Fold:
Amino acid sequence: MSEPVYIDLVSDYAFKRIFGSEPNKDLLISLLNGLFRGRKSIVDLLYEKNEHVGDSEEIGTVIFDLICTADNGEKFVIEVQRTAQINLKKRMLYYSSKLIADQAPKGKRRAWNYAITEVYIVVLMDGFTFSQAEESSAVIHDICLCNRETGRVFYEELGFIYVQLRNFTKVEAELENDLDRWLYVLRNMSKLNKIPVYLKKTIFEKLFKIAEYAKLNKEERAMYDVSLKRKWDAEAVRQYQEQQLSEAIQKGLETGIEQGIEKGIEQGIEQGLKKGIKEGIERGAEAKSYEVVENLINELKLTDDIIVRVAEVSLDFVQKVRADLARDKK
Structure:
C-alpha cells in the first residue's frame, strides 16, 4: 500500500496532533466558530486539560477541555470529543454535568451563588450516526434545554453539538462556507493528494502543511499507524453489529407477519408484527453475545478488554468463548 499524502484527521493520534496543541489552536478556533454558526465568536482558547484516553479506557476517544474567550470578552467552557458511540448521549450528559459541578468552589457557596460558566459539548461522530431515523439524517444536531410544550429555550448556557460526519456528502464545488470546508477535510483529507482550490485560505493551507504524512518521524508514524488500525477495527465491529441487528429484526418481522397471517385477522397481524419486532430486537441484542464475540476473536483478533467494551459483555463471558474456541481446535 502506498503512503498517504495526508493523515486521517479523525484518527485519535492525528486529531490530538492537529487540534490539541497551543501552536495550532487557531485551527481549533476556526473549526469551533464554524460549528457555532455565528452564535459565538471565539478569539482565544486555553487548554485546561489535554487528555488522550483512547489507549486504555475507551476505543477512539480524545477529549479536549477548553476555556474559550469570545470577542465580547465573555468566557465559557467547551469539551471537544472525538469519540465512540457506546452510551453516547448519557456519556455526554455525564461529562457536561461534571464540567458544571467542577466549577463549584469548595467554600463560600453562598457568595458564589451558582455563577456557572456556560458549558458546551462538541462531539465528532466518525463513521456512525444516531440510531433513530429522525435523528440520523442530519449532519449537525445543535441541542439545548427547551420547554417541551412551546419549544422555547429554557436555559441558553448549556449545549451539545453533535456532528455526524458520515452524513456530510458535499463535493468540493459545493462548499459554501468555512464550516463546509472543515467538514469536508475532516471526512476526506486522508484521500487527497493536494490542497483543493476551494480550500485556498490561510487557515487551511496551514492545516494541510502540518498534516503531511511525510513530516512524521518514525516514532510518530508508528503511533499514527496504531491509531488508524484501532479506528478501522472499531469501524469493522460497528458494521458487523449493524448487520447482525438488521438481519435479526428482518427475521423477526417475517416471523411476526407469518404469525399474524396464521391468525387470519387484523388484530392477529398487528400483534404478530409487534411480537416479531420485539423478538427481532431481542435476537439482535443476543447477537452481541456468543456469535459476535466468536467473530471478534476469530476475524478481528481483538483483545479481551476491547471485546468487553465493544460487545458490552462480561470478561468472564469472553474468556468462556475463547476457551470454547481453543477446545474446539484440539
Observations:
- Confidence is low (pLDDT under 50) at residues 52-59.
- The first strand starts at residue 42 and ends at 52.
- The CA atoms of residues 293 and 318 lie 7 Å apart.
